[in-house]
Predict the structure of Retinol dehydrogenase 7.
Amino acid sequence: MGFPVLMGILTSAIILFMCWIIRDNIKIKDAREKYVFITGCDSGFGNLLAQRLHQKGFTVIAACLTEKGSQELQACTSPALKTVILNLTNTKSIDNAVEFVAEETGSKGLYGLVNNAGRATPIGPTDWLDMEDFHRVLDVNLIGLIEVTLKFLPLLKKAKGRVVNVASVMGRLAFGGGGYSLSKWGVESFSDSLRRDMQHFGVKVSIIEPGFFKTGVTNLEIIEKDLHRLWNRLSPEVKSSYGEKYFNNYLKVQRLSMNTFCDADLSKVTNCMEHALTAQYPRTRYGAGWDAKFFWLPLSYAPAAVADIMLKLLLPQPLGIKKSLAKNQIDV
Ligand SMILES: NC(=O)c1ccc[n+]([C@@H]2O[C@H](COP(=O)([O-])OP(=O)(O)OC[C@H]3O[C@@H](n4cnc5c(N)ncnc54)[C@H](OP(=O)(O)O)[C@@H]3O)[C@@H](O)[C@H]2O)c1
Ligand SMILES: *[C@@H]1O[C@H](CO)[C@@H](O)[C@H](O)[C@H]1NC(C)=O
């Protein structure tokens, strides 16, 4: 290829990239007039986003799971920020929140719906779990999110609003058994179909894919307490297939990797949520955090064999397998 051709391609690429940057930075007008409803504002990303949007002048309606969370948020904001109690596994609670928002927003409709609430536990090796364990996560992270979204769609269409759904890198690369990865894959696919269906009405849908951050969802105390519950109720056969030492090794390796990966700067995630709400042209997907951008999301595009090897390195191997194989050989 000749030098002029190469220069031509390079220049076009740079110009296209600059146009994209300019387009990406165009903001909507009159953010101040707009209503935003956020779920899961007791702690973590939801709590920080509620405070930030409130400071920016949005009219924030923050949904909290507990009365305590709601009072704490109200104590550090002004009465202009409204809170409402919302438990996503309870249809009546969802209906109450929708009614409250409908009254608050009146003829304006709802500009922003941020589906942020979620839980991670029970999470652990798949054969340690039962159906109830799967339901406990799926009912909140996926079924609850769908119910909230369906019930807010009329208000969102009225305002030509936006839906911002919090998925995860674990919705692109499945590991850690239980409902969590499943729920986040579900959020990805629900959001994709919602975006395609709602484009005709001017409602835009964005997906946030955070890596690992220090919040309630990654709290090791909570995760380990639940893992003890799972391990202690295992049948002797399943336990011995893993080996007695497995549990402690699992905890050790999990602590090491969580402490390595978890980022304390939650604004990396809330900045993406803010962009999705305030940019004239919100992006479809936001990878949030260095680990997401440079490790988890690229790994999700790698061949499964490569991802399997990488993920195998992150957790210990069951030792009981070797023992039971050796025993079988002697039996024969
Ligand atoms: N932290 C991470 O590394 C990470 C990575 C990727 C994605 N995410 C996602 O980010 C979102 C926010 O989580 P976070 O990391 O900020 O953790 P968090 O601090 O635990 O926030 C989750 C929020 O959801 C609320 N919640 C839990 N169960 C609920 C229910 N049944 N109904 C209504 N609300 C409920 C929690 O209330 P309580 O505080 O009262 O329990 C809390 O306010 C979640 O969807 C999570 O899956 C987190
Ligand atoms: C949420 O609702 C479920 C089902 O009604 C209930 O079991 C759970 O205790 C509730 N959680 C809170 C914090 O109120």
Notes: The domain at 30-214+264-303 is CATH 3.40.50.720 (Rossmann fold). The first helix runs from residue 3 to 25. The chain has a mean pLDDT of 94.
